[in-house]
Design a protein that fits this description.
It is built from 9 helices and 10 strands. It is an alpha/beta fold. The protein has a single domain, classed as LigB-like (Protocatechuate 4,5-dioxygenase, Chain B, 3-Layer(aba) Sandwich), CATH 3.40.830. Strands 1, 2, 3, 4, 5, 6, 7, 8, 9 and 10 form a 10-stranded mixed sheet that branches. Strand 4 and strand 5 form a beta hairpin. It starts with about 25 loop residues before the first helix and ends with a strand.
């Protein structure tokens, strides 16, 4: 069961000044610039209920991420934001929700939705409160400045970091989260794609992985990731670093009236100054709509 001994203190920025600018004015200017450079909104009459967004440094994946956020359109109405990111630091059962305080970025404080978090923890023991899972995790943090700029109004945050590598646990988490995949809520699934193949190998691997996600079939994604592994592409260590977070979303949407739309793709080799085309990371953005 989740611990009742909760010390209330905010989660401070861990990667400001590294993955994104640490000075508020420069950060706001950079996010605004990326949104202007990125692909515009393609469906102006509706906003997605979920987006899959990369989480690398803004210099590498910022435009691809901004393309996903642009799909929210101007002045979107969002009350709650659920962010799912898979841990880069730790392995543990289920998922950790931060409820020891609010989240902070250089752009200000984002309020945690304690009522929803308590409901999730009471409904499923796979949801725990582990501060250590959040303190140094960048996958969730880098999404927050985009949300603060594009929403431009207060919203409630439910920050979730998955520690599991078990598909059955992802399915269980999805069952608990599914009722919240509804209007006025937004799900952010934070994940990069292929890690460390060559430029052209990344493009092909990421195309295959993206198509598996677009199928809205969790078993197809699992099988595709395994097939990618068996190909033994030189340098490839993963096709989808936060595969458990993406898989959880697919379990939430399978057999239901949701459609997946690919938005944008780049990899780190496209960055002209620092990009190394011999060893890249892939970034794809996808929007999920209710039919």
């Amino acid at each position: 069961m989740p611990s009742n001994k909760i010390r209330y203190h905010n989660r401070k920025p861990a990667v400001a000044g590294q993955f994104y600018p640490g000075k508020p004015s420069i950060l706001r200017s950079e996010v605004t610039r990326l949104l202007k450079m990125a692909k515009p909104c393609t469906q102006k009459t509706t906003i997605p209920l979920a987006i899959i967004v990369p989480h690398a440094g803004y210099i590498f994946s910022g435009i691809t991420a901004a393309s996903a956020y642009n799909q929210l359109g101007p002045e979107p109405y969002v009350e709650r934001v659920f962010i799912l990111a898979s841990s880069h630091q730790m392995y543990y059962q289920g998922a950790s929700i931060y409820r020891s305080g609010d989240y902070e970025t250089p752009l200000g404080i984002i309020k945690i939705d304690h009522e929803t978090i308590n409901s999730l923890c009471n409904a499923n023991t796979l949801f725990e409160c582990r501060e250590d899972a959040h303190l140094f995790e960048h996958g969730l943090e880098v999404q927050l400045p985009f949300l603060q700029v594009i929403l431009n109004k207060p919203f409630n945050l439910i920050p979730i970091i998955l520690g599991t590598h078990n598909a059955g646990e992802c399915s269980s988490l999805a069952q608990t989260l599914s009722p919240y995949l509804a209007k006025s809520n937004l799900f952010i699934i934070s994940s990069d794609f292929s890690h460390y193949p060559s430029y052209n190998d990344a493009i092909e691997n990421d195309r295959i992985t993206t198509n598996a996600i677009l199928s809205n079939d969790p078993n197809h994604l699992i099988n595709t990731l395994e097939e990618n592994r068996r190909l033994e592409t030189p340098g490839l260590i993963t096709s989808l670093c936060s595969w458990t977070s993406v898989l959880t979303l697919l379990y939430m949407t399978q057999h239901k009236a949701f459609s997946y739309h690919w938005i944008d793709y780049q990899n780190s080799g496209d960055q002209t100054i620092y990009g190394d085309r011999k060893r890249v990371v892939g970034y794809s953005s996808i929007a999920i709509y209710e039919k």
